[in-house]
Amino acid sequence: MTVVLSLPLFLTGCSQNTHIAPVRPYSRDLSHGARYYQVKPGDTLYSIGFRSGHGYQRLAVWNNIPPPYTLRVGQKIRLFPYKQELGKTPGARGQHRQKLKVRDGSQKKPIHSTISKMLLKFNWQWPIKGTIAKSFAQSGNKGIDIYGKMGQPVKAAAPGRVVYSGHGLIGYGNLLIIKHNAVFLSAYANNRRLLVKEGQPVKKGQIIAEVGKNGSTRPSLHFEIRKNGKPVNPLWYLPRH
Predict the structure, then answer these.
(1) Which of these, 12, 59, 18, 5, lies nearest to 36 by C-alpha position?
(2) Mind listing the pLDDT tens digit for each residue in 56-79?
(3) Contact 27/170 with Cβ under 8 angstroms?
(4) Which CATH class is domain 132-236?
(5) 176-45-177 Cα angle (round to 5)
(6) At residue 161, what are phi and psi to the nearest 5 degrees?
(7) Are 134 and 234 in contact (CB under 8 A)?
(8) What's the pLDDT score for residue 13?
(9) Where are the domains of the chain?
């Protein structure tokens, strides 16, 4: 009899635990297993690269999309390297890898020297003044959260061009993405209001949005820096307070 009574209690405990696991609001919303993505209204190659974690440059190469990276609704975007479909025989795969190595070797010096020059053209600044609400690790390695005041001006952390302005990315609320150069993007999420549009150039320190809140009790800004499509700790680049 004791065994029979304990069984429903055990099952009840299991059913309650299924909803306890925390949800990271800034995890990418395109699954690791997804191989293709169909373009929807409002999508840009930058936003798809941001959501998938691959970055717009890789997607442009994998899908043969030249600048200015124009997409059409319904278009299928490949989310994996084309070379994965090439060379079914070992010999063909080896030849393909050899060509890539030769090409990469011939381009290595110009790419690194160009990147070094571009990085010297600007220094980062804090998008808002405030204390850190969530560190890089606490946000799931997706950036940092900075406490602010409702409506507080959000400023561009470096000069660049707005490549996304909208609310189509799950967990980010009203989001701005700024392209600074061929290497770096910055993202500003949970805004109450966006003050710049896609394609608009912005200066360092220019007001681009207003602080809001997204599922938290206190207003805060979620801020990311992405290097070659991958999130990096913004504290590596921002000056010390």
Answers:
(1) 59
(2) 999 999 999 999 999 999 999 999
(3) no
(4) mainly beta
(5) 15
(6) -135, 135
(7) no
(8) 39
(9) 91-119, 132-236
Residue type, 126: W
Answer for the pair 132, 145: CB distance below 8 angstroms, yes or no. Answer: yes
* H/E element, 56: helix 56-62
Alpha-carbon gap, residue 61 to 164, rounded angstroms: 20
Collapsing DSSP to helix, strand or coil, 68 comes out as coil
In angstroms, the first-to-last Cα distance of the chain is 65
Say what the pLDDT of residue 82 is: 73
Q: How far is Cα 126 from Cα 119, in angstroms, rounded to an integer?
A: 17
Overall average pLDDT of the 5-11 stretch: 37
What is the DSSP track for 28-70?
A: -SS-TT--EEE--TT--HHHHHHHHSS-HHHHHHHTT--TT--
Q: Quick: pLDDT tens for 135-157.
A: 999 999 999 999 999 999 999 99
At 225 the three-state DSSP class reads: strand
Greater confidence, 169 or 212? 212
Q: Which amino acid is at 174?
A: N
183 with 119: CB under 8 angstroms?
A: yes
- 114-128 per-residue burial string, b: 16 or more CB within 10 A, e: under 16: eeeeeeeeeebeebb
